[in-house]
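I hope you will forgive my troubling you with a question about protein structure. I set the record out below, with my sincere thanks for your time.
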Amino acid sequence: MKKNKIRIIINAILSLTVFVVWILSFFFWRDSTLGGNGWSDLKYFTVESNLLVGVVAVIYLVYRLVKGGELPKWLSVLKYLSAAAVFVTFTVVVVFLGPMYGYGRMYYGSNLFFHLLIPLFAIAEYVVFGEELSFRESFYAVAPPVFYGIGYLTNCIVNGVGSWETVKNDWYLFLEWGYPVGIVIFIVIAAMAWGLGLAIRAGNRLARKIPWEDKK
């Protein structure tokens, strides 16, 4: 099967899985960490990064099926930064949340998809099929956590940090030690996103050596 056909199938699976899992999580998976909380789950980077993957996959499908041909740069960048965003989610769970709360909890219900399966699928899709980006363009990987951090901090500044039992504006407890520490945490996360983006880019450069029958 040719490269473009395989990528279309993968993106169809990605988009369908993301939105079906989110709907199931929204209405039914109330015993999952990311489930049964309705619209409030959209405040989590995990949910936002996975929905970003789904939205970009839909855009890819529409463009490929309607226009075809080589992808425009902006869409190639969107594929890249969405893969980098869920790579952050995947890494944080594997390195920090899994050991803290148990991998059984982190990979139960919708968490199995949002924390593991969809990120791995999206990362692999870009590594194998994505368009090559320059080193300068690798910095686009920091966009999702940077914009998320700006929104997170702005919300806390405008509405107050609150407490875990009341306002819950600092749901990740990044501001537990004050705004300076919280800002440093977001800077570290952004740096990690760039590092993971570089890893994806490196993997893509290696995968581009695969002798596909059709590289268009």
About this structure: Residues 3-207 form one domain. The radius of gyration is 18 Å. The mean pLDDT is 88.
